[in-house]
Amino acid sequence: MPRGSRVLSLVAAILALGAAACSSGPSASSSPPTSPSPSPAVTPIHVLMITATAGFRHDSIAAARELLLSLPASEISVAATEDLATVRPSTLAEFDVLMFALTSGELPFSTDQKTAILDFVSGGAGFVGVHSASDTLYEWPEYGRLVGAYFKEHPWTQQASLIVEDGSHPAAAGLGDRFSIVEEFYTFRENPRPRVQVLLRLDAASVGATGDYPIAWAQSYGSGRAYYNALGHFPETWHDPLFRRQIIGAIRWAAKR
Question: Is 10 a domain residue?
């Protein structure tokens, strides 16, 4: 065969193989591309924040509400109120956490409302109490069990050191071994340590004292969770990044998130 004819024959063969490859379907091992699965939507934690008072009223209530209401609603959605009529089973069913922030005195809850609060938490929801939440409802012992201890006195209002007992807990994570803050430091009628998991305690030496003074703690309550933090007297405390970290961590922990 002449050389030119051989070249033409080779080109024709290559073109024929290319056409066959283009016209063939996908191999048995190939699969069509798939779109990535969308991330599941994150359901926000719903918090009912009560700041009602029947005794001493803290100036820091406004700062507390400001902090909680400034949180991203897509993560933590807060309804702040002083209308105690909202505390009933049908309303609580819409929330994950009940928060008593700077409450005081004998709040006029009915027997049914008290039952609703205990059922809400023991049924699997969360409770968060802050500062004078322990100076509230002395005549309702079951509430004392829920908050962990009742306020006795505040002998030190100054800068002092707090010792972090369990930095692995979400409400104490990122605080280091200790930190310093200006606060009104509470003592309690009974030391809650035998009944709760203490997260923070006052460094007694930093106020010239001795003894064991728990400041923040967590506990199980039936199928639910309860947290208390004695800090929060001053508006400045609510603007403190370490305190903010504790409250957000406590809400998430109480809501089991």
Answer: no
| pLDDT at position 42 | 80
99 by DSSP, 3-state: which? strand
| Average pLDDT value for the chain | 89
Residues, the chain: 257
CA distance 186 to 173: 22
- Ramachandran region, residue 150 (left: φ > 0; alpha: ψ -120 to 50; beta: rest): beta
List CB contacts of 161: < 8 A, sequence separation 6 or more.
178, 179, 180, 202, 203, 206
Residue 111 inside a domain? The answer is yes
Q: What is the pLDDT of residues 240-253, one digit of tens each?
A: 999 999 999 999 99
Are 76 and 249 in contact, with CB atoms under 8 Å apart? Answer: no
The pLDDT tens digits of the residues spanning 98-139 come to 999 999 999 999 999 999 999 999 999 999 999 999 999 999
CB within 8 A of 125, min separation 6: which ones? 92, 95, 96, 97, 98, 224, 254, 255
For 77-97, letters b (16+ CB in 10 Å) and e give: bbbbeeeeeebeeeebeebbb
pLDDT at 101: 98
**What gap in Å lies between CA 58 and CA 186, rounded to an integer?**
14
C-alpha 77/C-alpha 237 separation (Å) is 21
Contact between residue 22 and residue 14 where contact means Cβ atoms under 8 Å apart: no
Contact by Cβ (8 Å): 141, 109: no
In a domain, 32, yes or no: no
The rounded distance, in Å, linking the Cα atoms of 2 and 20 is 28
CATH no. for residue 124? 3.40.50.880
**Confidence check: pLDDT of 187 > 50:** yes
pTM of the model: 0.85
